[in-house]
Design a protein that fits this description.
4 domains, 19 helices, 0% strand, 355 residues, mainly alpha, elongated, Serine Threonine Protein Phosphatase 5, Tetratricopeptide repeat
């Protein structure tokens, strides 16, 4: 009897274990399938990256997007697939993958939008990139990568006013290296000095520090604007101060354009000549003034000094013009014109005088 009871118990136990095992089979099978899919997705991700590095964009895109939903890192799949699509010029597919990434991972929208902007910039879609970056800046005003990309976008569009407005944020962000924005700041201010007028020009000039105001890069466009606005007096003061501090031919050229009293101008040029006796540009400019006053002797003297230092086309052409004023030296004038033209064609030079 005991044996029969034991046998019945064992039969019941075996049956129960069998039922429980059968019930667990679907769960185990599902877990096994899920794990297998993840393994395939990981393998596809690795192979997709490898294909990308080798430039196999089409195969890379196919592998990355096929297993994106099963991947443990779907964001990498979608963003990498977007890059692969763009590398094939398939911008619509790129945007579709970025959209799917946003749907799958709404908490990663900032990273997705940042990737979108980078890809748009790389594709030359600057205005689209700018729109993406403006949205990001609204959400994260001080993000250094966003600010740097905005700077690059404005540079590509030559939008100097927008760059000027962005400069304070760039300069105040400690995560952006100084060398990254410093050259852009200089370029932006110089470009605006060429284009601004009136109060806007004066306000901009006030932001330039004292040392920069004496350099040709900053002073040249500002002084030219003053001359164009018939404000020769202000331009003269700035140019005299700058040229007395450091002689620069391009600033001398502007000084020669001034409608200042010729005698006053000649006195200033002669004063500078004491410190720069071997400067042909200065000698030519003085000769030009003497010629305007019909002092041919002084004009010829300074031009001969200029040519003794170095043969130069402006001096030869101006000397020809001077010789032409005298009947006895007209033959010399033709020879000077000929030599000046030949020298000009052989080695173009910038003339500071009106020949």
């Amino acid at each position: 009897m005991l044996f029969i009871s034991l046998l019945c118990f064992l039969s019941f136990y075996i049956a129960l274990r069998t039922v429980l095992t059968v019930k667990r089979v679907p769960k185990n099978l599902s877990s096994w399938n899920s794990k297998r899919k993840q393994q395939r997705a990981t393998k596809a991700l690795n192979n997709g990256f490898l294909d990308s590095t080798e430039g196999n964009w089409q195969r890379s895109e196919k592998l990355l997007i096929k297993h994106a939903k099963q991947s443990e890192t779907p964001l990498l799949n979608y963003l990498s697939a977007a890059h692969a699509a763009q590398s094939q010029g398939a911008y619509n597919r790129r945007d579709d993958y970025l959209f799917k990434a946003g749907e799958a991972l709404p908490d990663q929208l900032h990273a997705i939008q940042l990737t979108r902007a980078k890809l748009q910039l790389a594709a030359g879609q600057v205005e689209q990139a700018l729109a993406s970056l403006q949205q990001l800046k609204t959400a994260t005003p001080g993000h250094p990568v966003v600010l740097s990309l905005l700077m690059k976008s404005h540079l590509k569009l030559n939008d100097w006013e927008a760059l000027y407005k962005l400069l304070p944020a760039l300069k105040n962000n400690r995560k952006i290296p100084q060398q990254e924005w410093q050259a852009v700041e200089q370029q932006t201010i110089i470009k605006l000095l060429h284009s601004q007028t009136g109060r806007a020009l004066e306000s901009l000039w006030k932001t330039v520090d004292k040392k920069q105001k004496l350099t040709a890069e900053y002073l040249r466009p500002y002084a030219q604007q003053l001359i164009d606005a018939a404000n020769d007096s202000s331009a003269e003061n700035l140019l005299v101060k700058a040229l007395s501090n450091q002689f620069e031919p391009s600033l001398l050229e502007l000084y020669c354009q001034l409608t200042t009293d010729p005698a006053k101008k000649l006195k200033q040029l002669t004063k500078w000549l004491k410190n720069y006796r071997d400067n042909t540009d200065l000698l030519n400019a003085i000769a030009q003034l003497y010629l305007a006053q019909a002092d041919l002797t002084q004009a010829i003297d300074h031009l001969e000094q200029s040519l003794a230092i170095a043969p130069n086309s402006p001096a030869l052409l101006l000397l020809g013009k001077t010789y032409e004023q005298q009947a006895s030296t007209k033959d010399k004038a033709h020879e000077c014109y000929k030599q000046g033209l030949e020298l000009s064609l052989a080695k173009p030079s910038t003339s500071l005088v009106d020949t």
